[in-house]
Amino acid sequence: MNTESEFIYIHDPMCSWCWAHKPVWDRFAAELADRVTVRYCVGGLAPDSDEVMPVAQQQAIAGYWHQIQGRLGTEFNFDFWTENEPRRSTYPACRAVIAASWQQAELAMISALQSAYYLRALNPSNVEVLQQLAEEIGLDGARFAADLASPELQQALTDELNFARSLPIEGFPSMVLLHRGRYHSIALNYQDYSGALQQVVELLENTSES
């Protein structure tokens, strides 16, 4: 494995395109495992809000789900829009990912959040849902709750969002390779990762300082 490099996957657990990319990303991540360390970075799609989304915004986002489903065959549970009071607020879910990472369960929480939101019609903007998921994946529930509300976690989220914004990305999901002190944007395809893998391999094999 190339220990001087790092592959960064910038995502948001409530980003529908991240959900659409998951099948390809999971296979790509497995290919990367023996080549380079993979780091996950939450991007913070939407800040904290207690306001229910306007109906027009709900309809627009549900429309994106239909578009993705039609284009890629991604599964969505549209009951979410009738069984919840949706809020445009993904920071709580991002905090949950960081809190879970403090219990070595980052990937389990990302998967749980996506399944809850897109398949189970649960709302990850709600703290009680986050707590439920933490317990379902076997975390220490009391520790998770304390971490989730702590200033230390809020600072960790702020730091991670600032880092994501410093990277050469245009949205979520995005992929970046840090190699020999330089950040390289990696092309993302929702159906085939072969081009991205070739790009990474070529960059890792490049030992020049230029």
Q: How much of the sequence is in beta strands?
A: 5-15%
Shape: globular
The tally of strands reads 4
Specify the biggest β-sheet.
4 strands, mixed
Task: Report the average pLDDT across residues.
Answer: 96
Rg on CA atoms, Å: 18 Å
How are helices and strands ordered from N to C?
EHEHHHHHHHEEH
Strand order of the largest sheet: 2-1-3-4
Cα distance spanning the termini: 22 Å
Can you give the helix content as a percent range? Answer: 40-55%
| Structural class by sheet pairing and helices | alpha+beta
Uncertain stretches = none
Annotation field: number of helices: 9
Provide structural commentary.
- The protein has 210 residues and is of the alpha+beta class.
- 52% of the residues lie in helices and 13% in strands.
- It is built from 9 helices and 4 strands, in the order E-H-E-H-H-H-H-H-H-H-E-E-H.
- It has helices spanning 16-32, 55-72, 80-83, 91-101, 106-118, 127-136, 141-148, 151-166, 194-205; strands spanning 2-11, 36-42, 174-179, 182-186.
- A 4-stranded mixed beta sheet has the order 2-1-3-4.
- Strand 1 (2-11), helix 1 (16-32) and strand 2 (36-42) form a beta-alpha-beta unit.
- Helix 4 packs antiparallel against helix 5 (106-118).
- It starts with a strand and ends in a 5-residue tail after the last helix.
- The model has no long low-confidence stretch (mean pLDDT 96).
